[in-house]
Amino acid sequence: MPNFAYIVKDAKGARVEGMIKADTLDMAVDKLAKEGSTIISVRAAAEGAFKGKLSLFDKVMLAIYKFRTGVSLKTLVFFTRQLSTMFSAGLTIEKAVTDLEKEEKNKKFAKVLRKIGDDIRKGFSLSEAMEQHPGVFNPLYVALVQAGEVSGTLHTVLDELSDYLEKIEDTRRKVMSAMAYPIFILVFLAIVVAVLFYYVIPMFAGVYENFDADLPAPTILAISISDLIVNNVFFAILVIILFFAVLFLLYLTDRGRFVMDTLKLRTPVVGGVIKNSIMSKFARTFSILMASGVPIMETMELTENVVQNAVVEGAVRRARVLVKEGYGVANAFRRTGEFPPTLLQMMATGEETGDMDKLLGKAAQFYEKLVDSVIDRLTSLIEPLLIVLMAVVVGGIIVVVYLPIFDLGDAFTAGIK
Predict the structure, then answer these.
(1) How many CB atoms lie within 10 A of CB 54?
(2) Where do the domains of the chain lie?
(3) Dist CA 303 CA 355 (whole Å)
């Protein structure tokens, strides 16, 4: 007799999860209904996703596949919102997907929608059809759609999912906009320095060579670096490409990714923005999964795979093990040492009252506002700091290049006297 995982609310309104044996899903639902509980969700018990460990080659192939087939989050948000609206208006899922496919301007995404429509006509459910396209629909998206199908509230879930994706996109856009200016200035600075070493310094080196003058040590060093770059420009470009390729491969390894993500979180100022952004995404994801009736263990597993930071993923994984051993959810996360007190307090209160999804939603709003305020302060501070950095680097190189001219001027003045 198969097992079914259920989530119900008892007479006191407390959330209760467990397993029940029944021949069919309908029989499991009938058994729970007779007990007088309010049923949130019932589904066939499964091992869950993400059990297998991918090799490095598999990770590279998956990254390439996602790059080839993936679409922007903005496109996915618009599709989800449109699908929710059309389904709520009474259209069948097949009809809604087909109409959206005809209107879609992104050729890659239109091809995916066409395949989903074909699969639905063959008898697949929407979640099963979406599961065939991991580059577009991540496991969280598929799990929420599946939860909506099982509970009969697909239109509500799609609406909540589109809100969730919009908020995630909004937070990511704000973080990226805060990082865009510094990245642009640093790239521009690198180009300016490269031009100075490749074109300007060799011109001055030729002049100094004609004068046969003794050069200061800083100028000799600058000319040596310039010669190295000019004589090995193609090799230097190859080294840079190889450096980023090795960095990419290291990031795909568990150890390399953990080290890089740790450095991100420990970077002064910027690390705080990244940490708050992750906490916002964590709380928002946990909230929508619980509100949709996904079991707590599967919620933790899915959340682990969407926070996109190895340090926090490891903490969620440890908390999941502790919950399995009998610890409370809030206590399990507290013991990992990676989650802030405010989030843990809201989680503990929600666990006691049975409203964890609502309180985690409020926690997500709190961290989103925190990210906004920090980004506003950062923007006002980073701009002058970067201008100073650029002036120091470029000015320093120019001073080093002109040092011999200053010395010649001093010698000429001394000769006149």
Answers:
(1) 12
(2) 3-44, 56-137, 164-417
(3) 18
Instruction: Say which amino acid occupies 279.
Output: M
Please give the structure tokens belonging to residue 294: 């996904």
How much is the pTM? 0.67
Express each pLDDT in 88-147 by its tens digit.
888 888 899 999 999 888 888 999 999 999 999 988 889 889 988 888 888 888 888 887
What's the CATH number for 3-44? Answer: 3.10.20
Query: Helix crossing, 201-211 with 356-416: angle to 10°?
Result: 20
Strand 3-9's sheet: what is its strand order? 15-21, 3-9, 38-44
Q: Alpha helix (H) ranges present in 292-355? A: 296-304, 310-324, 329-336, 341-353
Neighbours of 79 (CB within 10 A): 22
The DSSP bridge pattern shows strands 15-21 and 38-44 to be unpaired
Phi/psi at 306 (5° precision): -120, -10
Long-range contacts of 68-75 (CB under 8 A, 24+ apart): 68/135, 69/108, 69/112, 69/133, 69/135, 69/136, 70/135, 70/136, 71/106, 71/108, 71/109, 71/112, 71/136, 73/165, 73/168, 73/169, 73/172, 74/169, 75/106, 75/109
- Identify which of 154, 151, 131, 153 has the alpha carbon closest to the alpha carbon of residue 141: 131
Domain 164-417 has CATH 1.20.81.30: yes
pLDDT tens figures, 292-310? 778 888 888 888 878 889 9
Contacts 24+ apart (CB under 8 A), 261-269: 261/309, 261/310, 261/311, 262/310, 262/311, 264/309, 265/309, 265/311, 269/378
Cβ atoms within 10 Å of 265's Cβ, excluding its own: 17
Q: Give me the pLDDT at residue 40, please.
A: 67
